[in-house]
Amino acid sequence: MFLQQMINGLMLGSAYSLIAIGYTLIFGVLSLLHFAHGEVFMMGAFFGLYLVLLFKVNVYVALFGSMVITAILGILVERVAVRPISKEFHLAPLLSTVGVTIILQDAATKIFGGEQVGFPETIKIVNYPIGNVTVTSVQMLILATSLFLMLVLHLFVNRTRLGTAMRAAAESGRTASLLGVNINGVVILTFGVASALAGAAGVLVGLAFNAISPFMGVEMALKSFAIMLLGGLGNITGAMVGGLILGIVEVLSVAYLASSYRDAFAFGVMVMILIFRPSGLFGAKLHGD
Amino acid sequence: MLKVSNLYAAYGEILALKGVSLEVREGETVTLIGSNGAGKSTLLKTISGVMRPRGGDIVFDGHHLNRMKPHEIVRQGIVQVQEGRAILKRLTVLENLEMGGYLRPRDTEYREDLQRIFERFPILDQRKQQLAGSLSGGEQQMLAIARGLMAKPRLIMMDEPSLGLAPLIVSEIFRIIAEMKKEGRTILLVEQNARKALQVSDRGYVIVTGNIILEDSCEALLGNSEVQEAYLGGRKA
Fold first, then answer.
1. A178 to chain B: which residues are within 8 Å by CB?
2. Model confidence over A120-151: pLDDT tens digits?
3. What letter would DSSP give residue B196?
4. Is there a contact between B71 and A284 if contact means CB atoms under 8 Å apart?
5. Superfamily assignment of B2-231 in CATH?
């Protein structure tokens, strides 16, 4: 039973992680809280759903297609709502992304309707009993996909020249540009990657809970934001681990405590951690740039 | 090679450069001396594209740099070693050096340059896997210079490389600059430590409140009584 819950928690948490990583990437490079990131996630779920409904593609194609479309959506958001806004007023770009949140929610309601919808039986649900634990094929897909994406991202950020440039730009845009990095290019890349991860999470969450709606991004965005704080601002590993912790705490509190308090427990644990480690679990040990 | 003519730059409404003209020829080490706030750093920032000029012209090998972004100027072959070192603390020493060579192909020449850097700065070789933030101030300055060299620049601009370092390290930094000069590199140096800077350079400019007031060979400037009075701590006994 406990092991079963841990697996459920990991599954939910890995979806949180994907979104929180996107938040973290964008915050790292632009010091911007991208409010509309949750809506990009929501759009990703719808894109995946409609790829399946309209083109009868399988779930892998839907996942990949949704990532591509959300990447483009994210880059558009940056181009239209972030880049033209003066950075001299710190709140201006933030408010602009709040505006995008509303626009995307309204657009989704208009286009897709305000009802909760779910994926048709696209992948056959098979139960794999492992010992006395049961894992469904959907759960396997979610866990495998998230872990795979996180691994790829980790290798990209830490092992490639472009990834190193991204980290350099996150630490100091000016220094990176004086070393030859095109900062605008890095920003576009960051929005693209972050949004693609959110799109993937949208499809995965849509598959897991069959509850796709224009408002599914709101709660997700809030939680992922909290996860970013929990992991340590701008820290990718922190966002990964933070997401998993939140997912597990949430599922365990539903299983063993009262389900109506699941968010209270989840956020309670986060507040506790932040009281003892204000810079987050993996918060920067170096201060003062 | 680099020709700056009648350059103006400003912070908001306050003019920091008021028609500065300066030239650096290939293979030359040129130093710019002046007191705090005279416009030394502003000039370097304007050349490297961090600040937009309000007027005048910057020409490097026939290309106008005025409207270029910093990364495009790096592509032209100009690298700035920033004031305060500006190393990337959350990256390793090796990653900092790799970022220095960001625009270069990873070919044999690149690997040889990296090897040469490690021979010249053995401390960076020993610490290459450490986070750059864990280095001491002097080591960070060496890393900043080494990172600049990794770009294989045709002109390297150094902004106050000796600032805030212990006297022994300062001498070490100037020894490195002298070595770079001997290799035939083209250097534009900005320094508060006027005496040492003039000793390693060919020519010097004196800048006062955004105007170049004097230009001469370094021997002449070192012998100039006004320069001695204002920047070299009075006449030597």
1. 48, 50, 70, 74, 79-80, 82, 86
2. 876 667 788 877 788 888 888 898 999 999 99
3. H
4. no
5. P-loop containing nucleotide triphosphate hydrolases (3.40.50.300)
